Amino acid sequence: MKKAFLGTFTGIAILTVSLVTLVLVDHFKSPKEIFNKNIQSIVEVISTTNEFESFGTAVVINNQGELITNYHVVSYTQNNEKYIHEVILIRLSTQETYIEVEVTKFDKYNDLAIIKIIDSEQYSEFESIELGNSDDLSIGDICYAIGNAGNLSISMSQGIIGSPSIKLVVDGEEKTYIQSDISITSGSSGGALVDEWGRLIGITTLRLKDNTGAVIYGYGYSIPINQMKQFLES
User: Cα Rg for the chain, rounded, in angstroms?
Assistant: First the structure.
């Protein structure tokens, strides 16, 4: 009887370990899996008006052709006034040609804008990104920034969360951002900050400058996804 009991117990122990292993494998995604998961959800953006031109990134947020980006990606300043660009184009890294979008909603204060694909027949070429919860973030969590860094097409960088909720004074107003150790470069604005599961947790937005005006590298700041959700629901 003892031998039979031990044999059964051993079988249960092996089964338990196997189940735990399966859960852990499903729990985390590799960087390559995260990038491939989101490659149809993140686009390059070109915004133009006469001599004004800007580059950035946008993220697909639903199946109705809507994307989120920064307001400063789709706007320009002239005579100290902000204006929406006349022409805004997007494309996936897998596409050769750009398609036109229009701004349907924006928030200057929080630097957010919704852009929408004009031709509804093109909606199916894009995939909505999975949304995360920025309130669940902790210092040291692994994160990834995916965007049009340097206007050189969509690429990805890996880092960690330095602060899930840091206060910065921007344009004279105190605002809350996610700080990571991923440097934000020209073209990255409006891009996706995602967690270890590839879920959107923030919109990459800004970098800081020192007292001389020089860019401080090694840090990047993103608008928390929960703040974006409030913008969408308002």
Answer: 21
Give the H or E element holding residue 13: helix 2-27
Confidence of residue 62 (pLDDT cuts 50, 70, 90): very high
**Which of these, 161, 212, 155, 230, lies nearest to 185 by C-alpha position?**
155
State pLDDT tens for residues 85-126: 999 999 999 999 999 999 999 999 999 999 999 999 999 999
Where does residue 204 rank: exposed (0-12), middle (13-18), buried (19+ CB within 10 A)? buried
Q: Exactly one of 54, 180, 188, 189 is catalytic; which is it?
A: 189
pTM score, two decimals?
0.86
Closest-CA residue to 100 (of 140, 58, 137, 153) = 58
Report angle CA 219, 94, 72 to the nearest 5 degrees: 40
Q: Which of 41, 47, 72, 75 is catalytic?
A: 72
Angle value at C-alpha 136, between 154 and 170, nearest 5 degrees: 65
In the chain, the domains with their CATH numbers are: 40-125 (2.40.10.10), 134-233 (2.40.10.10)
Residue 54 to residues 46, 69, 205, Cα–Cα distance (Å): 6, 13, 14
**Predicted confidence band at 180 (pLDDT cuts at 50, 70, 90)?**
very high
Active site residue 111: yes
- How many H helices and E strands in the chain? 3, 14
**Is 27 an active-site residue?**
no
Q: Measuring CA to CA, which residue among 155, 204, 162, 205 is closest to residue 34?
A: 155
